[in-house]
């Protein structure tokens, strides 16, 4: 639920910033609403959608970890909690490193997907 609002708000912002001249030109050429959405609005909103997904991914990951720390019997949050309860620093570090590795992998996966699906927005090499 924490990530939902970021995706919705960014998607709305992206769709509202579609170029009205392109929409008007498509209507003049006889495009229906579905074609306008698929060929004009969705491509212009895609970078905004991915920005929302990137923020939502980190927000959702934090929510999962918080839930694991509060009430769980497995997961990285639970490992950190058990390390704190037993005074085991190694266990805490293992939990922290696993959180970092999973977060890094998820963020890079999202960037790769964005580069593939939004190739026109990539700047430089």
Number of helices: 5
Main sheet record: none
Share of residues in strands: under 5%
C-alpha end-to-end distance: 35 Å
Instruction: Please report the total strand number as a whole number.
Output: 0
**CATH third-tier fold name:** MetI-like fold
Helix fraction by DSSP (H/I, runs of at least 4):
over 70%
Task: List the SSEs and their pairings.
Elements lengths: L3 H13 L3 H9 L4 H38 L5 H11 L2 H29 L8
Helix pairs in contact: 1-3, 2-3, 3-4, 3-5, 4-5
Name a few traits of the molecule:
about 120 residues; mainly alpha; about 80% helix; about 0% strand
Tell me what the structure shows.
The protein is mostly helical. The chain has a single domain, classed as MetI-like (MetI-like fold), CATH 1.10.3720. The protein is 80% helix and 0% strand. It has 5 helices and no strands. Helix 1 packs antiparallel against helix 3, helix 2 crosses helix 3 and helix 3 packs parallel to helix 4. It is elongated. The mean pLDDT is 89.
Describe what is shown at a glance.
The protein has one domain (4-121): MetI-like fold (Orthogonal Bundle), CATH 1.10.3720.10. Helices cover 80% and strands 0% of the residues. The chain has helices at residues 4-16, 20-28, 33-70, 76-86, 89-117.
